[in-house]
Amino acid sequence: MHVGIIFFLVILGSVLFHIFTPWYWTDVASNWGGMDDTITLTFWIGGGVFIAVCLFMIYCVFKFSYKKERKAEYKPEDKKLEKILTWATTLGVAALLAPGLIIWNQYVNVPKNAIEIDVMAWQWGWQYRLPGEDGKLGTTKVVNINDNNPFGINLDDPFGNDDVMIQSDVINLENNRPVKILLRSVDVLHNWYVPQFRAKMDAVPGIVTYYWFEPNKTGEFEVLCAEYCGVGHYAMRGGVEVQDKQDYDNWLQEQETFSDLIAKQKILENEKTKLAKK
Amino acid sequence: MSEDFNNNKTIQAQSSETISGGGSGITPDMDYVRPAEVGEQDLYHGHSFITKWIFCQDAKVIGVQYFLLATFTGIIGLILSWLMRLQLGFPGLAPFMTAEHYYQFVTMHGMIMVVYFLTALFLGGFGNYLIPLMVGARDMVFPYLNMVSFWSFFVAVAVLLASFFVPGGPTGSGWTLYPPQAILEGTPGSGWGIMLMCISLILFVAGFTMGGLNYLITVLQARTRGMTLMRMPLTVWGIFTATVLAMLAFPALLVGALMMSLDNVLGTSFFMPTILKAGEVLEYGGGSPILFQHLFWFFGHPEVYIVALPAFGIISDLISVHARKNIFGYRMMVWAIVGIGALSFFVWAHHMYVSGMNPWFGFFFATTTLIIAVPTAMKVYNWILTLWRGNIRLNTVMLWCLGFIVTFVNGGITGIFLGNVSVDVPLSDTYFVIAHFHMVMGIAPLMVIMGAVYHWFPLVAGRFLDEKLGKWHFWLTFLGAYSIYFPMHYLGFIGVPRRYFEMYDSPYVTSAVGMNEFISLAAFIVGAAQFILIYNIIKTLKTGKPAGHNPWQACSLEWLTPTVPPEHGNWGDRLPIVHRWAYDYSVPGAKEDFITQTTPPSEVAHTKVEKT
User: Fold this and answer.
1) In degrees rounded to 5, what are phi and psi of residue B507?
2) ipTM of this model?
3) What is the pTM (predicted TM-score) of this model?
4) Chain B contact present for A67, CB below 8 A
5) Does A135 touch chain B (CB under 8 A)?
6) Core-most of A44, B308, B458, B541, by most CB within 10 Å?
7) Is A140 strand, coil or helix?
8) How far is B605 from chain A (nearest CA, A)?
9) Is the Cβ pair B181, A14 closer than 8 Å?
10) Which domains does chain A have, with CATH numbers?
11) pLDDT, tens digit, for every residue of B324-373?
12) By the 8 A CB rule, do B356 and B420 touch?
């Protein structure tokens, strides 16, 4: 008797916990609200199955507990029942899969007007690069990376000169403008993840990976590394500030381009040689 | 029960007469069973203590050896989990818990629990003990190889544990061992630790292959007369199919471990692209980190089913025996096991949706993954339909079965979240994943192991485990584990990433502090509760109630040996002859509520047995 009651309380507790939990997802701040909706749908269907199965089990425990004089039913198979259950399950699974695939289709197809952002990761930090006026990022190579060329831009690539370089772990984004995050890593796996945007993807050394989203809430967000990358993993944080167009444009104006950096370094070098000559 | 066994002997004598005499009419035709095609194997009989108990060739002793060693490593895994929870619930409380140690404990806990505890225990432990007994064989077909299998496992465990004592300590690269970080500085144990891990895994796979061949060929070739494949208990089906998976999946892990060792020691670049480390370009180039992930998960996903399928099989038998009812839809159950096994080779990249592989793979792997939900759901329906109109004994074994159903369904449904590619994106690499896989392949299989221990202990030791202690053990474990992992999903919803040594001042996770403390406390209690079982076993071995023959009134062969516990050779003078499946419980018209597999039809002619 008490067995069935305890199991029932476990199920009831689970439902109540779900309804009253103070721990739930953060407000979505990107276009991926559809992911939340699919989770909710999966909760309804999956949660319904969980509760139904458990309640059926609990009913059996109450109803068919051992009695010496009773004999269990002898019924090895029930083809019809098994068929109905198979098809019902298939239908339920298909109902869950379809919206999942539809959203995935959006996830892998990046809108044409998305601004590309190069997110470069290492143990343990981030920096960012935006295309300049030409709208294109210059190509890069790991071996090019040095103090004068922190992003490893190929010097013979004309698209690289006007690239905007943000040597900080915080990046600003324009509200309601899709961004294509291009991820690369110079050492191990990382993952640039903002929980409020829902989206994520690993940065893999040797290749460039991508994902996209459209921020739709202004404000500051924390970036977390979501792929284990060694002892500093938990401390590998960054930040995003989503701004309206006006603020964003002002911020962008203040940033340094690759040609600015080269020019600055040339001046520095000239001064050095002058000093040396003296 | 001894009466039954005597009957078998006479029946066998009669049926051989039938064969030679061309149906002389002494045996009713209905009792005829095809003669054996191969003669009986000669067994090696150990006489000294060493050949009987240490370098032993008896599958039952090897099974117990596997069980004990796997449990020993499992306890180490448990202690590591305590240390992790200590850090997560009460950061800074233990001064020795540095980030390095934390990640080393995470890694060793994961690898130990998945490979050296669950896999070794289900296949090495239950497989060795139960397969020969359940199919009516005298032993595994290659007893010597079987012994070598165990000792390879022993060396593998020794090498694994040795890594705690080498310079740099064990590897802290996560149980998935992803390169490049696994072999680069910045990850603890990137030198010695990862080497020993790879060597240990290679030894494990080698040893496991020897054992696995034994399980397969014993099931295929050494079944006793009348034991057709479709009469085998589901336990055997589960272990058999899991072994097929293991034979196909472990080689991928083996080559992954070998290639990573070469990258580490010889400087090859299988998995290593050009890497910049502390301002220096390393002498690697052109390798693919994602290739390792494909190899790892091509092993890793079937591995989940290598643990799950034996659990499915065992739980089916436990539910059937203790609900006094045949397993519902036996054929469906068999095909579901085989189908899940086959499908499990087509879903591996669902662990890699956000790994940076070509995202178009997502469509394929999401579809295959959700297809697996169908046969899995059928199994769940059949378990609860077995309870329906049964005559359920609510003993400790049945409690573990009920606990299994709740935790497995819970964990299975969160699997549908994670398998459904775009739903996985926000949840992957968060605590939702941790909660999901601990529920479905940690707690659920543990429930099965515990149920199986309480069920078969009377066979192995001849005495019942104490029911009262068993119930305490169950309720503390079930309620405790559920309150660890059910709320943990919600940490994942918030977005708390896994493998974080501490969260410190993250704005939206400070609310999780209270829950982390609660989860840690529950984890300490659940861990401690496991020692109730150890106490119970020690107590029972001394003073437990003797079980006698077939104490649960089961139908399957392992309970029908002439001696309890079964001796070397299992069956005395003559092998049993099987006349029916393992599930003739509560047959209308039968005197008792079970008909053993060895009962010939003529003895129960008046019952309404369905032909199996």
Assistant:
1) -65, -40
2) 0.94
3) 0.92
4) yes
5) no
6) B308
7) strand
8) 16
9) no
10) 2-63+80-108 (no CATH), 115-271 (2.60.40.420)
11) 999 999 999 999 999 999 999 999 999 999 999 999 999 999 999 999 99
12) no
